Automatic annotation (TrEMBL):
Species this protein is from: Flavobacterium xylosi
Stored Pfam families: PNP_UDP_1
Catalytic activity: uridine + phosphate = alpha-D-ribose 1-phosphate + uracil
EC assignment: 2.4.2.3
Domain Nucleoside phosphorylase: 29-268
Protein name: Uridine phosphorylase
Length: 289
């Protein structure tokens, strides 16, 4: 039996942070970071059956062309992903009354639609990136036993290439879901490794008033390659989503609109239009499945 201190429920029986019960979510879930982006997706739905929000976690479940889909905001960062995926898994794979894991487990399909900055000059603003791998620079997933789901060879190659300071923790690498990759794949998508940082400023090489541990890290990441895979972009959620999903038996895929190009110093003139195009494309693919 899972103790009350480990799996915390609200007085109404919903999971603590997300404020959700099992019947509130679909098997197909779209993650966004910004709570205001939830309705940018559900505005295309035929109907919405449920809506709630607690803190930065906003959830709406409805139907798009006959397909039941949940859209949820996760907020920013790997720490929030730890909350979101563990609580979603509890909703489908733990009996909340008996507090026992279920004998028959459910696999969720989780697709992140986000915005990101490109590290490569030839991946311009307004283009789409599919994360073949998530490279975690954040160290969050190291709290779990991850060797069976991680790409240790790529991790070691990255550590060597960047002369990574292991006092920051060893980076981890997790692959996307092959099932969702095949479903969403398109000639429009750039593919590669998405690096996930634990912060927005220093961890992503930005300098305001504080010096950073490795001022050359971004340039070293620019030219890292492993078996023809290069680092395409840098953000704050993908590797954590991939890692927890792989460990818990869920399918996960991260899609990003490039709104900034760090190599050229450019920023999208209309990022909202590019995001809407990726939303429409993703919904169409999900509904056809």
């Amino acid at each position: 039996m899972i103790q009350s201190s480990e799996l915390i429920l609200n007085p109404d029986g919903s999971v603590y942070h997300l404020n959700l019960k099992p019947e509130h979510i679909a098997n197909d879930i779209i993650f966004v970071g910004d709570q205001n982006r939830v309705e940018k997706i559900t505005q295309f739905f035929d109907s919405i059956e449920f809506s709630t929000q607690k803190r930065e976690f906003k959830t709406q479940t409805g139907t798009f062309k006959g397909k039941r889909i949940t859209v949820m905001s996760t907020g920013i960062g790997p720490d929030n992903i730890d909350i979101v995926i563990n609580e979603l898994d509890a909703l489908v794979n733990i009996d909340l009354e008996t507090r026992q894991p279920k004998e028959k487990l459910t696999s969720l399909n989780i697709i992140r639609i986000g915005t990101s900055g490109s590290l490569q000059a030839d991946i311009p603003v307004d283009s789409f990136v599919m994360s073949k791998f998530g490279l975690g620079l954040d160290n969050m997933l190291r709290s779990y036993l991850i060797n069976e789901v991680s790409n240790i060879e790529m991790e070691d190659a990255f550590v060597k290439h960047t002369n990574w300071d292991l006092r920051k923790g060893k980076p981890y690498v997790i692959a996307c879901s092959e099932k969702l990759e095949k479903l969403i794949e398109s000639d429009k998508m750039h593919k590669g490794i998405t690096a996930t940082a634990g912060g927005f400023y220093g961890p992503q090489g930005r300098v305001l008033r504080l010096n950073i541990q490795d001022e050359d890290l971004n340039s070293k990441m620019d030219n890292f390659k492993f078996e023809d895979n290069r680092i395409t972009n840098l953000e704050m959620e993908t590797a954590a989503i991939y890692g927890l999903s792989a460990l818990l038996g869920h399918n996960a895929l991260s899609l990003n609109v490039i709104i900034a190009n760090r190599a050229s110093g450019t920023f999208s003139e209309d990022p909202y239009k590019a995001v809407d195009e990726l939303i429409a494309y993703t919904l169409k693919k999900l509904a056809s499945n």
